[in-house]
Design goal:
The structure holds two protein chains of two kinds.
Chain A (H helix, E strand, L loop, with lengths): L5 H9 L4 H13 L1 H19 L9 H7 L13 H21 L3 H6 L7 H18 L3 H26 L5
Chain B lengths: L2 H9 L3 H22 L3 H18 L9 H19 L10 H4 L11 H4 L3 H13 L2 H11 L5 H8 L3 H25 L5
Helix pairs in contact in B: 1-2, 2-3, 2-4, 2-8, 3-4, 4-9, 8-10, 9-10
Classes of the chains: A mainly alpha, B mainly alpha.
Chain lengths: 169, 189
């Protein structure tokens, strides 16, 4: 039998060989001092790796992490109230900004004929048209949008981020 | 306690249950983080970050894998993000110079004899630290945490064969370096 390769020796020491192959390997080792030597070298490395005691975290690590968890004591749900509130606010701000910058009157007119009933249809179209005329060029709405963004940024900076800030032991 | 029960209790708001999850996995997480991140002042912070991520994402964990494998994967990915931010080279391979070290088979002192000494043990640790990140992570998880090739592969998103190959090359390199270093320091004379 030829000498064992590094891979065969490691498979032997890891216990990855089938029973038959392991027996053949053992028989070879009984008669081959070179391979026995190589196996012992690997055994030394394995012993060193298994001896490793690992790494220690600070005492009370788990308690410290628990203290950093959200106060309500529940794992974060992707649909919590704050997320829903921020989503709705974002949609309103996006719609407001769109209405401010884009003239939607032609769009309103284009859909006026499909609205149910001539009276209701004309009433709704008139209302939308009035609304759009009122909004276009309205500086107050723009300021409101900017203020809303500032408030969201402030909430995030002072309420949400501190919850997730890392603390040193 | 059963990990399913601990997860269920944690999701119901029981912080003691989550503390038990941390205590049961902090050794594993510290092995991954301390092996991958060499900056001592950041190691524990990253461990905290890992467990906060575990808590935040626990609702999405459906036991497709073992809880320990899932947590290990979060730890591994958190470390990768950290290292990317620090612009550390992530996937260096063993260099030809590192691979071409000759085995000193005629050395009269073997690693199994010398490893008993504290000096040689620390030498081995130093050699592990010098290896590329994925090599030293795999060696640690296999030997220190007794993870299987499959679990390591799931964690690092690598095929089992690649994990096995990295592990073999890493141990071969360690053996060669240990023998070479031992000879160079006149311990064979």
């Amino acid at each position: 039998m030829k000498h064992l390769t590094d891979e065969e020796i490691q498979n032997y020491l890891d216990g990855n060989l089938s029973r038959d192959i392991a027996l053949l390997t053992e028989r070879h080792l009984e008669t081959c001092p070179l391979c026995r030597e190589a196996v012992k070298q690997y055994q030394g490395v394995y012993a060193g790796l298994d001896q490793d005691k690992g790494f220690d975290l600070s005492r009370g690590f788990s308690k410290s992490v628990v203290k950093m968890l959200p106060a309500e004591g529940e794992a974060k749900s992707p649909f919590d109230l704050l997320n829903i509130f921020l989503t709705i606010l974002g949609v309103i701000v996006a719609a407001g900004v769109t209405i401010y910058y884009v003239d939607l009157r032609p769009l309103g007119s284009a859909f006026s004929h499909i609205l149910p009933g001539p009276q209701l249809g004309s009433g709704v179209v008139a209302f939308v048209e009035d609304l759009l005329v009122g909004l276009n060029g309205n500086l107050g709405l723009l300021i409101l949008g900017v203020l809303t963004l500032v408030i969201i940024g402030g909430l995030d900076r002072f309420l949400l981020q501190p919850r997730h800030r890392r603390v040193r032991f | 306690m059963d990990s399913r029960l601990l997860v269920k209790k944690t999701l119901a708001g029981n912080k003691k249950a989550f503390e038990s999850i941390i205590e049961g996995h902090q050794r594993l997480v510290s092995h991954i983080v301390f092996r991958m991140i060499q900056n001592a002042s950041d190691q524990e912070d990253v461990c905290q970050e890992v467990f906060l991520k575990v808590y935040q994402n626990l609702r999405g964990f459906q036991f497709e894998a073992k809880l320990s494998t899932w947590i290990a994967r979060i730890a591994y990915n958190t470390c990768l993000n950290y290292l990317e931010k620090k612009q550390v080279a992530l996937f260096d391979d063993l260099t030809p110079q590192e691979n071409s070290l000759e085995t000193v088979s005629d050395c009269s002192v073997r690693p199994d004899e010398i490893v008993e000494g504290r000096e040689v043990f620390s030498l081995l640790q130093n050699e592990i630290e010098k290896m590329p990140i994925h090599y030293r992570t795999i060696v640690t998880l296999y030997h220190l945490d007794q993870m299987s090739y499959k679990e390591i592969g799931e964690m690092m998103e690598l095929p089992e064969g690649t994990v096995k190959s990295y592990l073999f090359r890493a141990r071969k390199l360690l053996k060669e370096r240990l023998l070479t270093k031992y000879q160079r320091e006149d311990l064979c004379h």
